[in-house]
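User: Some background: our group keeps a shared notebook of sequences we're curious about, and every so often someone picks one and asks for a predicted structure to add to the entry. Today it's my turn. The entry only has the sequence so far, pasted here. Could you supply the structure so I can complete it?
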Amino acid sequence: MSADKTKDWNPGAYGRFRDLRLRPALDLMGAVRSVGGGDVIDLGCGSGAMGESLKARFVGHRLVGVDASPAMLEKAGESDAYDALDQADIGDWQSERCGLIFSNAALHWLGDHEALMPRLAGMLAPGGTLAVQMPRQNNAPSHRLWRQLASEYFPDRVDFEAGPGVMEPARYFHLLSGLGTFTLWESEYYQVLPAEEDAHPVRRFTESTYARPILEALDEGEQEKLIAAYEAVMEKAYPRGEDGTVLFPFRRMFFTLTV
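Assistant: Of course. Here's the predicted structure to add to the notebook entry:
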């Protein structure tokens, strides 16, 4: 995860949907066809959910987890999968001759991808791969309505320029395809969110990630007002089944670049 100027990430809240968040990461790992001579970097490793899988897949390579969150790195260290853990803002992180830079659901928190992605590609050893997955869900009701409602209720309280975002797929293609073998695709995952006693399941899924910077800009009373308005809309946008579960479509963008 990138550095945060307010509160640290909450591994428990993030990990509630561990299996759903892990599936795209495993799909991304499965798409890696080439690793150069050098370390495997789990960039934005978070709580280390992919550590054991990366270590088992890329035997013989040193595995390094990089994240800005002390709480997340502490959790990642419990697995013993990583040879090293580096606390650093992933936007400022530097290295040389990496065999693989693997980044799952992290780089969308950073801006200026026009400079960021080529810079990361420049850290790869010959035959190395940059493998990236980023949510592409901002226009879906689950994400769009957090910002829309916050702008209506609290237009002067939230920095709407901050928060996650990605470029259009064609921009990544034109930016990176000339640097090596480039593959880009999207997948929409139909996720079954479990029933919640005191919240709409989509609210629970989004509040610890996408909605986090929005909610942290508000006081407790303002948060309650925004959450109540959001939940009312979610009941229509993502209706619950008789058992309380929700079928939640979630779109993600993937690409690999091998140099």
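Suggested note for the entry: The first strand starts at residue 40 and ends at 43. The beta strands are 40-43, 63-67, 84-87, 98-104, 124-135, 181-193, 246-258.
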